[in-house]
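We emphasize that the prediction below concerns an isolated chain of 236 residues; any contacts that depend on oligomerization or on bound cofactors are therefore not represented. The input was used exactly as deposited, without trimming of termini.
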Amino acid sequence: MNNSVQEIHDEQQLTQYLKQYQLETVFHEPLRRHMTICHFEKCELICREGEASEYLYVLVEGKIKIFTTSAQDKTLVLCFKTPLEVVGDVEYVRESNIVNTVQAVSPVVMLRIHYQWLAELASDYAPLLKFLLKIISHKFYIDSNFSNFNLMYPVEVRLASYLLSISTEEAGNVVHEELDAFNLTDIANLIGTSYRHLNRVIQKLCADELIERHQGLIMIKDRAGLREIAGHNIYE
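Result of the prediction step, given as a token string:
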């Protein structure tokens, strides 16, 4: 867990964020006393896979990256998220360690509250429980669609969708994580295909000038073309 996080308690600013995202009822007054506003710099870790989970976070500004790490310390980006997004909800309900690593990819502002206060002050508070149920149900819905998508659509569609989901646009360029051989194997497993077939599809997208592969990096050349193939961005 990051111990250098910039954390402040500003009731006025907190109220503004809660009002902006219609969360005033969800986080009622007893909870607000224990909520803080956390600022994370670009590339700063918010929580790390496998560590003890202590806080519920609500993303209110910026963009975060969610990824998983292998035993060989290779990473696989699962998705990028923008407000409104909640981190630590599944872990709170399941009383489990952190499932995936979350990192800021831009300056990020999150509202934070320790699980202790949720348990003591809102274990039977209906608006918060309903909010968590809605958020977690949506995540399971996305996971279900993810599985169905892998079964029903061609690899070309799945790869196009994945590339769109992990891409970020900065200064007009589309930047990606390094996709070395190990990472490509993980991506193949994620989208339900073989490493060899994934390579063939990448070569086809390169030949069609939709993407460009150079020294372990993939850059999107024709975003509209990829979106046409993907249909909808299932991996986001």
